[in-house]
Write a structure and sequence with these properties.
Helix content: 25-40%
Distance between the termini: 18 Å
Low-confidence stretches: none
Mean pLDDT: 96
Radius of gyration: 18 Å
Number of helices: 8
Shape: globular
Strand content: 15-25%
Strand order of the largest sheet: 7-6-5-4-3-2-1-8
Order of helices and strands: HEHEHEHEHEHEHEHE
Bound molecules: pyridoxal-5'-phosphate
Length: 239
C-alpha cells in the first residue's frame, strides 16, 4: 500500500496533468476523453505504481520489455500495458500476450516478426509505428520517406493492427520546436492511411511527454506518454 503522502503527491500531480490535458484538448476542439494518458512507470517505484492504480489510472507505459513482463505479473490483470521502448525481434514472444499496445515498432522486419508470431499465437496485437521525424542519427524509428515508401506493403500484414504512429520530439529548451515535428507526424499518418487498407486504421498519434504534451495535444495527439511530471516531489526510499 502507498503511504498517504505518496498518494496525495501523486494525486496532485495527476490532477494537474489531467487539467492541463483537458485545457489543451479544448484548444484543439476535442474532448479530454479523446486523449489517452499513458502513465510512464519505467523509473517508478512499485509503491508509486500502486498509488496510480489506486487513483484509477489503468494505462501504464514501460520502456523495457523485461520489466513490463515482470511487472505485469505483479499488478492486476486489468492494467493496460503500453510498451514504449525499443523491442528486439527475439523479445517479441514474451511481450505479445501482455502488451496492449506496442508503440515502438521501428522496422518492417520487426513488424513482420510480430505479424508471424501473432498468427501463430492467434492474437491481433495493436501496434504503432515509431517515426524519427526529426531525422536524428541516434534515434530509433522509421525515417519519414522510408515509412511512406514501405506503406503500400503494410496491407500484407493481416495479423497485426497498425493503429497509428508514434514519435519523440528532440530535446530543446523551447517546447515550440516540437510543434512542427508533431504536426508532421499527423500529416504522415494521413499519408500512410491513404496507402493502406484492411485492418490498419492509422488513427492514433502517440506523441508528447512531460515537457511537451500540451503542444502535442494541440497538434492532434490521441495518446500522450507522461512519466516524470507524475512523480514530482516524491523521494525514493533509501536502498
Ligand atoms: C520515458 C519516456 C516517456 C516519458 O517521458 P517523461 O519525460 O518522463 O514524461 C515517454 N516516451 C518514451 C518513449 C519514453 O521513453
Amino acid at each position: 500500500m502507498p503511504t498517504t503522502s505518496t498518494l496525495e503527491t501523486i494525486r496532485r500531480n495527476l490532477d494537474r496533468v489531467r487539467e492541463t490535458l483537458s485545457a489543451a484538448a479544448d484548444r484543439s476542439g476535442r474532448k479530454a476523453d479523446d486523449v489517452t494518458l499513458v502513465a510512464v512507470t519505467k523509473y517508478a517505484e512499485i509503491e508509486w505504481v500502486n498509488a496510480l492504480l489506486e487513483l484509477g489510472e489503468r494505462s501504464l507505459g514501460e520502456s523495457r520489455p523485461q520489466q513490463m513482463v515482470e511487472r505485469a505479473s505483479q499488478f492486476p490483470s486489468n492494467v493496460q500495458w503500453h510498451l514504449i521502448g525499443h523491442l528486439q525481434r527475439n523479445k517479441v514472444r514474451p511481450v505479445l500476450p501482455i502488451a496492449d499496445v506496442i508503440h515502438s515498432v521501428d522496422s518492417v522486419r520487426l513488424l513482420d516478426r510480430i505479424n508471424s508470431l501473432a498468427k501463430e499465437i492467434g492474437t491481433s496485437p495493436r501496434v504503432l509505428l515509431e517515426v524519427n521525424v526529426s531525422d536524428e542519427a541516434a534515434k530509433d524509428g522509421f525515417a519519414a520517406d522510408e515509412l511512406l515508401r514501405q506503406a503500400a506493403g503494410f496491407s500484407q500484414f493481416e495479423h497485426v493492427r497498425i493503429d497509428g504512429l508514434m514519435t519523440m520530439a528532440p530535446f530543446a529548451d523551447d517546447v515550440e520546436t516540437a510543434r512542427p515535428i508533431f504536426a508532421r507526424l499527423r500529416e504522415l499518418a494521413g499519408e500512410v492511411r491513404a496507402r493502406v487498407s484492411g485492418i490498419h486504421s492509422v488513427r492514433e498519434l502517440s506523441m508528447g511527454m512531460s515537457r511537451d504534451f500540451t503542444v502535442a495535444i494541440e497538434e492532434g495527439a490521441t495518446i500522450i506518454r507522461v512519466g516524470r511530471t507524475l512523480f514530482e516531489g516524491l523521494e525514493r526510499p533509501a536502498s
